[in-house]
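Sample A.
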Amino acid sequence: MKVKAGLAMASSVMPISASCRSRFGIVSPAQRPIISSSPRLVRALARSFLIRTSSSFAPLSADRRIREFGQPKLSSSFLDKCNLATRSSSLRINRPSWRGQQGSLRLITCNLAVELPSAQSVDAYDAGQIQVLEGLDPVRKRPGMYIGSTGPKGLHHLVWEVLDNSIDEVQAGFATKIDVELHADGSVSVRDDGRGIPTGVHPTTGKSAVETVLTVLHAGGKFGGDSSGYSVSGGLHGVGISVVNALSENLQVTVWRNGLVYEQTYKRGKPVTELTSKPLPEREKSKSGTCVKFLPDTEVFTTGIEFDYSIIAGRLRELAFLNSEVTISLTQLTDKKEKVKSNEYHFAGGLSEYVLWLNQDKERLHEPISIRRERDGITVDVALQWCSDSYTDTILGYANSIRTADGGTHLDGMKAAVTRTLNTLGRKSKIIKEKDENLSGDHAREGLTCVVAVKVPNPEFEGQTKTRLGNLEVRRIVDQAVQELVTEYLECHPDVLETILAKAIQAFKAAMAAKKARELVRRKNVLKSAMLPGKLSDCSCTDPRNSEIFIVEGDSAGGSAKQGRDRRFQAILPLRGKILNIERKDDAVIYKNREIQDLIIALGLGVKGEEFNLDNVRYHKIIILTDADVDGAHIRTLLLTFLFRYQRQLFEAGCVYVGVPPLYKVERGKQAHYCFDEKELKAVMKTFPSNAAVNIQRFKGLGEMMPLQLWETTLDPTRRMLKQLTVEDAAEVNQRFTVLMGDKVEPRKELIRSSANRLSVENLDV
């Protein structure tokens, strides 16, 4: 092959062994051979044409030729299903043609046209091609860098950014009331009674301070120091409100300050009006505060701008627990400004009340104990309580009212203090004998519910999303505060100490009893056979990023799924009925259960409590696929309980999905439509004449569907419907699983009663 700019022609002849000849068909020069996918042939061709293959084959069909991972696909049925790339990233293969030798077909020839970059195209890369994004352009260009995503999570993040500004006013002692309204047009308004954004001209920008914080990245009053507007704040980078402005179709800001009301309007980050002001009525001269109303931009949030009332309500309740001095209201309005629903949150008890709310459906061993400590400008609030009927801990951490989902030094300090204090008091009281080992942290914290909230003047968060606190000085202060709190309380309440230690020692013994089962899980981390008791039918792909597993209900559905799947990247694991409810069981029982063992081994979940490593998970898409009836819903809930309690990080990594099979098949003549809900069914029926002969089939079980039907509606990645499950509010989810799957019946009945208005009698499966 001649290598120079322009087009280069390459031709290669490869001998075909007798065992491979059946792969080819007789072709004329005007035809392409029909060649099926064979990894052996792919590797041989790859060596012949200086092409490398990846370790797995991309699931591509002939009518869906795409460029995956930037790798070119040779346009033949042989290579359409194989993931190929040139060894040189500067080469681009196009116009392949195939010719097979007539007769015995011992040789196959492939002619390729290879396009090489010219020297001119390389030289064309100059200073003029360097882009400089100014103002809020970087936000609109790469919104995910600032809000995480442009899906529902990123959409709600806009509300959190505005809300955090109001909470900062609360923490500074200048606000006591926050009102959040969800409007019918999709807009949201957040109003507080704080000091109001300053309105004077900023000396650096020459604009008003309002316009500066709304249009200039890294502008705000939260950078610390003597000139800062806040001693404690969740904002570090000064980008929150300006990001909301950039990603909003329109934004209106209203400021009440110094006896005046100021207003300004923006469109996609650009001011469309000047900052105007007018005097307040005499009776409102003392009024102060800020109101920000914004409508998210559908050009950015292409999947929709519908806010979830329950998600916002959960965050507001959380903030009200963390800031006992504030009252927060949430209202959903119609287009006529009428209330659809509303809630108001105020918790004078603070974190102690938060812990009581988390444990409302558990057997509590004692009343919540709490402490507030301030040292070196850092404020620490801790509340904790042990429960006798819980086998896991519930620990929530906050820094400047920001939820630290990945923990940090404040939680490290708390955990160390609890473990050390219980061991010290246990040996002092002779409950833990001299010959006995110390309790580990996991055993000491079994059944513990704890909330740790710190206020730090200069917090060190990891990234803009602030999921982990890094200040080393915080650990020492929290450690000392918790040790003092727990020691003082338990020394005064020896009966509580004895109960907690008895529970911890029992947990230690249960762990020892489960050790053999755990070792079994470790030994089987690599499956040697697809014929497991769980009847796993594995896929041929070994890359977990490109692999997915369907956990299906029963052998009947499993049989259809196995026949209908694409075995290259789809695995099937049928279950034998309902799995164990691990909400009510300790580790020893969990590890001895065969169905649970099959799930742990098949998914590659490792051992509960050990550090989570996504690379060890065998499939990065775990899809729960159950029947559309009460039993199916129950099995789905049991599986979600298992995944949440056993390896919660799967949800945080975005690995858990629920498959949505169709409910109806509508046939009219040779036409067939699959409908996923009643609304879609009615829409399809409206397209037919009123006197049309229509056959409607209601699917209740996956086993009722033929393999081809299951593939077309539920398994095919191009046509199926999946719901990805993530955890927005860990406290809410934890409490909901306790109610649904715990021992107490009354809270479950109350939940059913309160949720009854969401159901339609026609949809009940009776």
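Sample B.
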Amino acid sequence: MPRPKNELLRQMLGKNELNQVICNYGACKKRVLSGHAANIQRHLRLMHPVIYNSYIEQKNASKCNGNIKSEETRHEMRQKCSRKKSKIELAIVEFFTKCERPLGMLEDRAFKVLAEPAFATLNMSVNRNSVLETISSYAHKLRAEIRDDLSGSLFSLKIDMATKEDITLLGINVQYIKDRSIQIKSLAIKELQRGYTSEYVKTLIMEVLNEYSINIQEILAITSNDNTILDAVKELNEDLHSVLGGDETFNHKTIKKESGFDSSFEDWLEETDLTSYNITSVLSGTQTLQLCVDAILQNPEIEKNLEKCGTLMKELGTPDVWQIFGPASCEKKRNDCTTMYEFLEKLPVMLPTNVTLYLNTDEWCFVKELLAALKPLYKATKKLQKEQLCYSELFTIIMNIVFELENLPNNKMAKSLIDALNMRKTKLLEMEIFNTAVFLDPRIRVCLDATQKSRAKQYITTLYNRVSTLKGDTTISETNDSLMAEMTSTAEERPTSSHNAKSFVEFLQNLDTEPSSAPVSYLDAEITLYERQPRLPLDANIIDFWFYQHNTLMDMAYLILAIPCSEVSTERLSAAFQYIFADKQNPLSAANIDNILVVKVNGVFNYDN
């Protein structure tokens, strides 16, 4: 009795016009010696190893049960092959994006021999175009996922700008909270034309927003340190007001005017309501700290001593700052907090080895004092450059720096920095969005006085109404009468210095909590319940805290706390320059660079599922 034919293998065969047996899998069409199972297996092993391995696994597993059960086994094999093909495709994408391997490798003969079996599984040729098409397809999927995440909600942008060899790049990133963590996604990286203006930058931003089907009304804040971008934000606000139809959109939306309150208070409420519909311009944490450093550098004596140190470093021939950034920008870079600290730190090590260069005693005292004063800011700046932080964390960073500097009682520059930091903190708290961020941080809420807390509550109400309008919800929350009473009463003074506390933690423990007013709406009730909760320690995870609240106030907190204040996204522009200058003979198009970078920074490569 002849052996039964293996239909699972034979279904892959066909015949050509010469009546020869050929492989019908994909685009193979190669000749097979005969339809015998051994010949088919040999062909699979050599030309389609993924299918062959899957077949052998199934064959071995089924030996105890006799012959292969065709329909069930075919389905399982197809599923396994599909999963393996997906992993191979994902690996190819990761290899040329996340792993930063050059596309020029695809032209190397040895690499082609190694990669051909994997590429053949996907019916792909081992060449540049096929890989770029695969990356483009994956980038399209990632953009669709981001589009779904942002649909119908408010969010904040982080826009960076960098220049290298006369090429200026604009990086547009979005930041929001999802899955109990801060998500920062790259929307696009665009090359700017020479002589760009704020109007041109605004146009580019709008093009990117349109690509993701984002409405200008969905932008809560934009973080940037570049003046041109900040001017573009002003122009975006003008467009936003035109879209909203002027002041009529804001009138009587969140404000219930009652007798007994003066007109200036009502005007403030109107202004707060209008502000909540603006796109707020936000400076990054590093720029905020830099402004404090700039303030003390205005001192002529400090400036003179720094100039002397700079001259010595030039003579020593070590400052990479001047070599990398050139003479036009070296002064600005030298005054950067991080660069200045690292620059001064080299002096005590290098000067003793040079007998012709020296500093006198007073100048050495200056260097030591300035290093001690800058050290807390240097550590904070490094943290802001590496970690994704909640917006309210900037307040904690400033306060920690202040307390560290107060432990340097005889350091004049430390005292000047404390004054500059406290002034900057006061200006930040005058911003409704930052004041509200501090209020919604259960670790540091107690630092606000009664007036600041009342302002935060009003901003939360107007923000809630903005979100409701965006979602088409006509339910509008009105201002609490007791809130108005709080605002018109005399504000309780809160200390701005340590008051004998040795650390920020001890300072927080010494502050008393305040009784909350009676709520008049469910949102007010949630705020009241939040205020009654005990203060969390400084090392608590505030995103987790809000995750377990499961209420409307949680949604408002996530919007505010997700406003970018760190510099994590700036590294992405460096990667963009790498691709631009990598292969000048065969340069990538702007679209391909954008696709590669979108995948590189946003892609998640998980091979377990």
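B remarks: Residues 388-566 form one domain. Residues 247-263, 319-332, 481-491 have pLDDT under 50 and may be disordered.
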